[in-house]
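Open question from group meeting: does this chain pack into something compact, or does most of it stay loose? Before anyone orders reagents, we agreed to write out a predicted structure and look at it together. Recording both the input and the output here so the notebook holds the full record.
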Amino acid sequence: MFNFAFIVTSPSSVCLAKKETIAYKALGMACVAMGTMYAMVGLTGASVSNAVRNGMYEGESDSNLLSLIMMSGGEDGASMLDLCIIALFGFSTVASIPVYCLLAKETLITDAGVAPLPAFLLSNVLPWVIVALTYNAAFFDAFVNWSGLLILGYTNFSMPLLLDLKLKTVRAARAMGKKMVSSDDGSTTKTTKGIMILVTASITSVIVISIADSLNLAAAAFLFTAFMVARVKV
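Structure tokens returned:
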């Protein structure tokens, strides 16, 4: 799920596009392309899942799916299909970096009022310097994993739905003033609210099970979060 955590770039992408429809089509095509590529990687990795669980490989402690795919060929090595899948996976990861750098630079310039040169250094140079200095460091790896789990989950998946509900409320208030009420706003709002409840509760349960390693606590956290989010008034 977190591989689709590019939602935070959507507002900047829409602002940079000549038309809103172009940005929406680009984001939709990106979802389709990413889903296809990840499905291909998952199907390839599934072929060695039983062998990994049964400890048939010497590197069974390696949890990296790409490493497991490379070992799936045995003495003959990985097949050409496996190598192509791994190459596509790596390309999909690297190709997104310039987009984030560009959007970060534009945000610093337009929203924060930073000059172009400092904005370029902060968005395109500083991140690479930090990664180069902390590459493979245990504390940095833990920081990335936990910050992504605790922050990006809610930021990318819960907050957009909450903002969408707020936008619908504002539009409904304006429509009431103009006596222009859409008949499907109520059902759409309920659907969005239901999805927000499920997504937020699921993210919370993932965090809890990562910390406590307990399905019972994760289930309790899911139900508690769903109950609390359902009580939120937009």
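Observations to bring back to the group:
The mean pLDDT is 76.
The radius of gyration is 22 Å.
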